[in-house]
């Protein structure tokens, strides 16, 4: 009975993973362009304010920030928001601003009740002037010229409250760290796309848009002034108000700016899951945890069953090897579909390393059960039960927080 139960669990697991992957492929390559997009009124080009929080000088920063001023869109502002005038990004920003009257600089000051990114975004909003749509983006992407036009387009439908793009990571060297980061990013994108289509909500802070009137009606600024993250807190408000969001496949931006180490990926993914824990506790506990633990279990079970089968007392199938084999085969078939979503570094290598990559996913998830603290850009934030920031500790603080 145990082996039969394991087989059923493995079957449900791989079937679910396979189906949502296929759905995401269909949605990205056909459903959005040939069905959903055609319903939106064109042209639709309301005045926009694009707000980009910046910190430090990362690789390709100037090229990325310049990309937001090279958009094929008639009427918009670009607001670069920093923590301090002393931030290293300010010099880059001022060089870009010198050549374009649409660019603005917002200085937020140190956050005391929310994550620093939210503080920067709120400062940027004060310079949004008469914008009808607020757009939020990360500084580690360079958008395509059509990015803003496509991101805003679904807002032509009054039934759509917010829109979101995503990012696709291209490994440069194919190191284990890069592959791990690429893998979890693909997993998030697939889950994100399916959840948004089915549940009507799901936003990625690196590329999202919302009408100003909806932003104000939902009291997003008030929420952000205390929240531990921007996108998940906004997504929570949209869901709570029974509004709808849309993932916009043409706004999936491509970048090769990946985390170089496995440890860095585990820490990054742990932070993403912490936001799920903060704002969607039932989903985090009743769905996310069983999926993460099951994945780890079946990965470990296959070699374990092979070892147990060496004993004359137990066969490979009786030790759960059949269920584990089904899990492996099903997951590898699913991974083989990933190139249909976007280019991947040597798909064969990706498949070979998959068991280890999947384990990092489970490790990150398990770590979230042990803490309510996130570390973001070197700053530690302790989150309250509702996802608000309860305490902030910066490098050099005496330990009392702020």
Which features does this protein show?
disordered C terminus, alpha/beta, globular, 7-stranded mixed sheet, Spore Coat Polysaccharide Biosynthesis Protein SpsA, Chain A, single chain, 3-stranded antiparallel sheet, 402 residues, 2 domains
- Could you report the average pLDDT, rounded to the nearest whole number? 94
Rg computed from alpha carbons, rounded to a whole number of angstroms:
22 Å
Main β-sheet description = 7 strands, mixed
Measured by DSSP, the beta-strand proportion falls in 15-25%
Flag low-confidence runs.
398-402
What multimeric state do the chains show? Answer: single chain
**Distance separating the two termini:** 55 Å
Number of helices: 14
Strand order of the largest sheet: 3-2-1-4-6-5-7
How many distinct domains?
Answer: 2
In percent, how helical is the residue content? 40-55%
Shape: globular
Task: Please report the total strand number as a whole number.
Answer: 10
CATH architecture type of the largest domain? Alpha-Beta Complex
Q: Which class do the helix and strand fractions yield?
A: alpha/beta
CATH class of the largest domain: Alpha Beta
Name the CATH superfamily classification of the largest domain: Spore Coat Polysaccharide Biosynthesis Protein SpsA, Chain A
Order of helices and strands: HEHEHEHEHEHEHHHEHHHHHEEE
CATH topology of the largest domain: Spore Coat Polysaccharide Biosynthesis Protein SpsA, Chain A
